[in-house]
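Exercise 7.
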Amino acid sequence: METQTVKSSYRNIILLMLAGESIFVLPFLLARIYRPTFLDVFKLTNFELGTLYSTYGIIAVVSYLFGGALADLYEPRKLIAGGLIITGMGGFFLMFYPSFLQLQLLYAFWGFSTIYLFWAAMIKAARSWGGSLQQGRAFGLLEGGRGIVAATIGALGVFLFSKLLPVDVSGANFQQRQDAFANVVLFSSLWVFTVGILIALFLKEEQTTTTTKLKQSTWKQLKTAVQFPTMGMLILIVLCAYIGYKVTDILSLFAAEVMAFDEVAAAQVGSYQMYLRPIICVIIGELADKSTNSRWLLRGFAVLLLGAALFSSGWVQEDTQVLFFVALILVALATYGLRTLYFAAVQEGQIPYVHMGTAVGIISVIGYTPDVFMGPLMGYLLDHFPGLVGHQLVFGVLALAGLVGIVAVWRFQKILHRLKSS
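Solution. The predicted structure, written as tokens, is:
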């Protein structure tokens, strides 16, 4: 019976790994890996793509708040599966190259499906899996597994895209590029839909999970959770770390515009840097369990600041490929390490499990606002300051976020010390 329970438990974390990244393949991963191609086949500017992210983000902000409370009331399996299935259905519409207005509506729909139903339920399920002593491992495995899924989907998609194009990528006409990319979208949509079915059939509730359900109204849940002393710094930590994650959207574009890589090679940069994610996340998660999450968050922001400073300095150019990959690795190391730990730190921040969903919702409302403003901001800077200068400005914003993140973690530690001393 014990062996069966262990197998069921590890099956759960594997399913959460699959679900946690698959849900974002359509709204984010495709444009991140194939950004030059995505802009071309949908006839978008960087700013227009940024406004799609803003539309998504506006809906997501509301969804975070009320979806968090929802996750404290209902079984995660149903919420996670439902989010995946209807997100995948949206991908089938994307195959037909909708107009810009239709894309806005689609991204609004995805803001609801990926967040209201899915996000807090997944985070709460991961915290349940980690118990009281293995939060670093739980979120390290979750983020690392999400990295493996992202890299796998990215590699398969790049392979499919390259095989459906002529041997000479630069010789492919517009229609050939659209046809090839439509097949990538079809593959991605089927993947997301299938993972939703797997979650519905096989995700089980952890036996260690408390069965206590909150009977408060949504507003009372929110009022209770917002009063925890560490909430403010947790919000700021997630905000600064997520700015870093949003900036990874332009790494493939940097490779194309500054490093002069062709479209396939640029897409490979976007895909290959994701292979760092599982290694970083698992190692950082294990190390954090032997120390504290906040100490490793502090180190992560310091590395983020260093990597961003290299990019923003202007030293990284076509003739400095080694420095490009060094800076890329530093940003990836910091970004993925921070993503591993910022929700693992919720338990360290003395927030009870019964309020986890609501707390995640509140943190995410502000913490994930880069979904609203970073897309247009990056698009504006890249369109109005073409080439290296625009990229320098974007990474300058990232450097500022790294600095603020360091201060936020320091304050978080001070608050915890005061709570433990009182």
